[in-house]
Design brief:
With about 90 residues, the protein is mainly β. The protein is built from no helices and seven strands. The radius of gyration is 13 Å and the shape is globular.
């Protein structure tokens, strides 16, 4: 399989390493492409959006338009920041 999807409305929840509750909701299908995985790159979606809540903080993470890059846009409290995940 060259590509796989996690469908919108998929959810996860639990407790992170710091003991804080989190939830995650996929709002637009997350798309992973095998060809986009580099030697130092883990499995990061190339497209899709998810909403994450950690404790009392909420974020929207936009993984882009399908390009094989490591850039994501994180939005919280109306402010957006583009982050490169290549070094994480």
């Amino acid at each position: 399989m060259d590509e796989y999807h996690i469908l919108a409305e998929s959810t996860t929840n639990g407790v992170n390493r710091e003991g804080v509750n989190y939830t995650s909701l996929v709002t637009e299908d997350l798309i992973y492409k095998r060809a986009c995985r580099g030697p130092k790159r883990g499995r990061v979606p190339v497209a899709g959006v998810k909403e994450v809540t950690i404790g009392d903080r909420s974020f929207t993470i936009d993984f882009g338009d399908g390009e094989c890059d490591t850039m994501v846009t994180v939005t919280s409290n109306g402010e957006s920041k583009t982050i490169d995940l290549s070094d994480r």
